[in-house]
Amino acid sequence: MEHSNYSKWWLWFALASAGAAMAVFAAGVVRAESDDEPRTKTPIQHVIVIVGENHTFDNTFGGYQPKPGQSVLNLLSEGIINADGTPGPNFSNAAQNKAKDIGPSLYSPTPTFDSTYVTLPQPDTTYAYGRPLNVPDTRFPANLQNGPFQLSKYVSYQVGYTGDPIHRFFQMWQQYDGGKLDLFTWVADTAGTGSNGNPVPQNTHQGGVAMGFVNMSAGDAPAFKFIADNYAISDNYHQGIMGGTGANFIYLGTGDLGFFNDGSGNPTTPPLNQIENPNPVSGTNN
After folding, report:
1. pLDDT value at position 45?
2. What is the pTM of this model?
3. Exposure check for the chain: N or C terminus, fewer CB within 10 A?
4. Distance CA 155, CA 55 (A)
């Protein structure tokens, strides 16, 4: 990917647009209602932060069209998709590649290029409620074009559950791939969920689901669109730390890193079964 707003992957941690917008919304309407309530220097008493994890900016706002006089950098504005969700003239900028990182080689944040996907692998039903796990999700075609696709063409935006894109420290560095942003699908389809002390982690087999987006131009995500239109949208926010929930929650709340310690603030070594080994399992690609 040369410059797709999948670079806003690092927005992943907060749909920060929604978080900032909701903070503004809450600040504008919450006021003290009686003389008995605590007073603040401004009418603002509560700030609400919404954290929508594990998705990029473009997963939700890729098809967003701002009001006249405003601009936003997303899949639509970059010509990667059209307003109807179909591939745009610059669709190939978001093409996903395969890589080689076969064990027992050492982990690399920039694995060796292998080939370009002809079509995206069919999304799997990872973590899907009420559906078999880790099998091809037949709601989606098996020949999706190599690039972003509109989820709501296949699954209802309101009630369709589509899985949980991988969100782990070492895997995100590989997805980033030195800035090329072209290994989202390969990592999602080859990486494990983390061993948690077990010898071989379960492969997630997520297929191409990370390249899916909901399309505001087609009526998806109306609440987020309303907030963006009427309050604020942090479309230039980037996630502070590679990885998933825990590290980012700590960073969002404190502006600092969390670390394993002895309970008195002194760094110490975690239990060995809690230290992740990012090297590929022997004979596997991740």
Report:
1. 83
2. 0.78
3. N
4. 17
Q: 204 with 117: CB under 8 angstroms?
A: no
Q: Is residue 54 within 8 Å of residue 167, measured between CB atoms?
A: yes
Q: What is the pLDDT of residues 226-266, one digit of tens each?
A: 989 998 787 777 777 888 888 888 888 888 888 899 999 99
Distances (CA, A) of 134 to 52, 148, 208: 24, 21, 13
Which H, E and C letters describe 178-229, residue by residue?
A: HHCCCCHHHHHHHCECCCCCCCCCCECCCCCHHHEECCHHHCCCHHHHHHHH
* Cis peptide preceding 104, ω within 30 of 0: yes
Residue 21 contacts residue 228 (beta carbons within 8 Å): yes
User: Which pLDDT value is given to residue 223?
Assistant: 92
209: left (phi over 0), alpha (psi -120 to 50) or beta: alpha
Q: Give the separation between CA 225 and CA 222, rounded to whole angstroms.
A: 5
Q: What is the dihedral of CA 254, 235, 149, 246, to 10 degrees?
A: 0
Backbone φ, ψ for residue 97 (5° rounding): -115, 165
Q: Which amino acid is at 280?
A: P
**Where are the alpha helices (H) located in the chain, listed in sequence order?**
16-29, 57-61, 169-176, 184-190, 222-230, 245-254
DSSP state letter for 112 = E
Residues 6+ apart with CB under 8 A from 221: 60, 61, 157, 214
**Residue 225 burial (C-beta neighbours within 10 Å; 0-12, 13-18, 19+):** buried
- C-beta of residue 280 within 8 angstroms of C-beta of residue 195: no
- Beta-carbon neighbour count of residue 162 at 10 Å? 22
Question: What are the residue ranges in the chain where pLDDT is below 50?
Answer: 1-32
Beta bridge partners, 192, equal 203
Q: What is the DSSP letter of 103?
A: B
